[in-house]
Amino acid sequence: MITLALSKGRIFDETLPLLAAAGIEVLDDPETSRKLILPTNQAQVRVVLVRASDVPTYVEHGGADLGVTGKDTLIEHGGQGLYQPLDLKIAQCRMSVAVRADFDYARAVRQGARLKVATKYTQIAREFFASKGVHVDLIKLYGSMELAPLTGLADAIVDLVSTGNTLKANHLVEVERIMDISSRLVVNPAALKLKQAAIRPLLDAFSQAIAQGTHAA
Ligand code: AMP
Question: What is the CATH number of the domain that holds 6?
Answer without folding.
Answer: 3.40.190.10
